[in-house]
Amino acid sequence: MTAAGPQVGSLAWIDLTTPDVDAAGSFYSRLLGWELESADTPMGRYVTGSVGAGPVGGMMAPAPGEDAAPPAWALFFGVADADRAVDAARRLGATVLQPPMEIPGGGRIAVVTDPAGAVAGLLEPGDGGSTVRGEPGAVAWVECQSRDVPASEAFYAELLGWHARPPSDGYRVLELGGEQVAGLMAMPDEVPSAVPGYWLPYFAVDDVDSACGRVEELGGGVLVPPRTVQDLRFAVAQDPAGAVFGLLRTPGQRAAFQ
């Protein structure tokens, strides 16, 4: 799958904010086979990780003077107009963390916290492509773990036009134009109550069990050991700095975005 421009309402990009970009780049390149490219931008040094078909995501350190938030992946969803999307998000109960701003390449981004507490990015695309999906090392699926599933479902339905399939064992698959774009589930009981809702990217790997072993060899940790649900083999892990991500293998190693 190539890195074509993002469809409005679908995943457009992922970003990691982490205190040690070099260490993060080494971890993800050795785990997922990313090629790394570094560039100086007005926001600071930015490292992009790519697979054969194109870019997967970016990594950067917090800006000087920013509050020290825990390292985390941020997911950005395509919108036609960042200003209008932020206005709509605010009306729907979101808190605006970053008003629309221009980024290199001509696009504009904004960041909000949805009504259930999960941070979500909004991207009005410029000249660049979007994150690659559907091959090993790329994004295979994204999922919102929410403290208030009805509120999350209603928010993204209004903001991005998503429609939820009937839940299966409490898990909702969200669709846009008949295509799967994301999953939505209640925060697991074992997660400490202080942890807010969050978006989780899953990276495609050939062997989830072997990848989990590699995570630990590289200094990360496995939070949810490998398990299989409806032919999907997955696990949840964290990198050495603590950023959480998923690992996923689907039947025939296709992307879960179908």
TrEMBL record:
TM spans (from-to): none
Record-linked CDD domains: SgaA_N_like
Domain VOC: 10-125, 138-250
Name listed for the protein in its UniProt record: VOC domain-containing protein
